[in-house]
Amino acid sequence: MFRGREITPSDFDATLQTWYKRAVAEDGPGWSMLQHLPYRDRPAIVTSTPIVIDRDFSGVIAVGVELERLSQFLAGLHVGKTGTAVLLNRSGTVVASAASAVLKQQRAGEMPELDTLARDDPMLASMAALFDDSRLSLADLTETRQVPTTGPLDGKEYFVTFSPLNFNNWVVATIIPEDDFLASIERSAMILLLVLAVLTLTVAAIAILSANRLVAVPLLRIAGQLKHIEGFRLDRVRRLASPLRELDDLSGTLWQMSRGLASFQKYITAVRLTEGTKL
Q1: Shared domain check, 161 and 113
Q2: Considering the chain, what is the average pLDDT of its residues?
Q3: What is the pTM of this model?
Q4: Which of 47, 69, 165, 214 has the smallest number of CB atoms closer than 10 Å to its CB?
Q5: Pseudo-torsion of CA 186, 191, 192, 196, nearest 10°?
Q6: How far apart, in whole angstroms, are the C-alpha atoms of residue 251 and residue 66?
């Protein structure tokens, strides 16, 4: 592949580039930002190191990575359910982002500005609002920090987390809508309410059926026994057993009363017969 490479004329002078000068001046590996590549203008980050052969400086080797590649990598990450990730430098400039507008500007050879992106992207606008309100300073950030904020474009609540990187003094920011955290809780609460509603209706139905079987029906039967007693049809009175002690006692009392009335009825009949004989 190396032998089959294509060589085309170019006015690109590597010795004039910042990454070349830095490698020579520092005499060691390091990173630099650049805007111009030998084949096109694209924002990129490049690592370069001097080549020394037999203690003689022979040149500089450099490997560049276009920032568009970093944005594509961030676009492939799943941050929560609908969140996004942004790579910033300490001055607040966007280095890479999953936002489509960032990819478009990087492909055009431009470095996207956060204020410009925040005009159309609600999540980036919620992060930019933190800098506008002076609630956060990237220059002073030394540890991971999470800040809740309200998006100025959509009024939604967001959780923005800033994490400093031990690389090129960058900061990675994740922006996650509050709904991503609360959606599962709200869904679980809704399911719980539905289960409780079904359970309540089931218990109520069972209670109604049980009350009808244990109370209403026996009371109706006892009322029928009272009608037999009222009509002095005492031979039809029966003791009705019930699992409820109160109803069972009431039925027993009615039965005993009917037996007493039956005995009294025999006495009344005997008296009437005796009086009839005397007459």
Answers
A1: yes
A2: 80
A3: 0.60
A4: 165
A5: 140
A6: 95
